[in-house]
Amino acid sequence: MESLEFLNLKKNKFYGTIPPTFAKGCRLTNLNLNGNLLGGPLTPSILNCRGLEVLDLGNNKINDTFPHWLGSLPQLQVLVLKSNQMHGSLHDHSSKFSPCFSKIQIFDLSSNYFSGPLPVRYINNFKAIINLKKNGSARSYMGLKYASTNSGFYTYSIGIVTKGTYMELEKICTMWMIIDLSNNQFVGEIPKVIGKLNLLKGLNLSHNNLNGRIPTSVGNLTSLEWLDLSSNRLSGTIPNKLADLPFLSSLNVSENQLHGQITQGKQFNTFGNDSYEGNKGLCGFPVSKGCKIIEPAPPNVLEKNGSKSNIAFGWKVVLIGYGCGIVLGMSVGYAVFQTCKPEWLVNLVENQHEKRRRRKSKNGNRSNRRSRA
User: Residue 39: CA atoms inside 13 Å, Cβ hemisphere, count?
Assistant: First the structure.
């Protein structure tokens, strides 16, 4: 058993606990116990397998908190713990300088009972997803050379969900980078640091209790092919930067609290209504709800602060000027009449008085003549 490097016992009916005594010097590179009835906690003796590259314990009944100690396995590239009964927070209380999952490429914790915020520390240390370019591997697939002839190659297999569809992969491409934390109880916001994972192919954070906005840093995931953020409590708008992701072919942000106009252009024009349903505030293609175009008010109507109009302000100035003019006019008139009598005004008044006197005298003469007659 000391020379055993590959152990695949998936899809059987094994039950009980995983053996707690992995021997020192264990040479396993791939341990696959997926699809059994194994329960109980995990055993830290797995750390004796220092060359372990793939650990697949998915679809069992393992009841334990997250095994942070697995992060110290220096060669671990694939960790699958999905569909178990694991619980608790992914917050690690150990030293922040200890190594943790620096070579991980596939990190699948879906369909458990994990809670608390998303694991920012682990995301920061996924160095293989941040930059794989000079990892030195010329292999196209993860696997193991035959020890006997050194000429054959045994590829690893895995079952994963891609673009909403479960797939059994007979070979794991070395360029596949996937994080699946769906169907848990994670809370809080999606951390901005997620944008550092520029080689990530697939990200699934659906069916949690995440809130806040979709960070614009997601637009930095230039290798992303599918993104599923559905069934959370995300709010705000869909970042326009997502339209610049050249390989994004599957998007699901349904059943959230998003609002505003749906990003348009490029591959976004290929996404259907099911990518957005359940967000009452979203509008624009491809949903049936159109966006209301609100024209900005003319600059001479509203001030910048929108509190009062310039028109109202103008009327106030006019009224103030009108009132001041009346007061000034009356003051000047009073002063003039007190100092002297304007000659033109005196003549005008006297002429008007003389005309009235003459009219009265004429009317009197006419009435006398009539009475005599």
Answer: 4
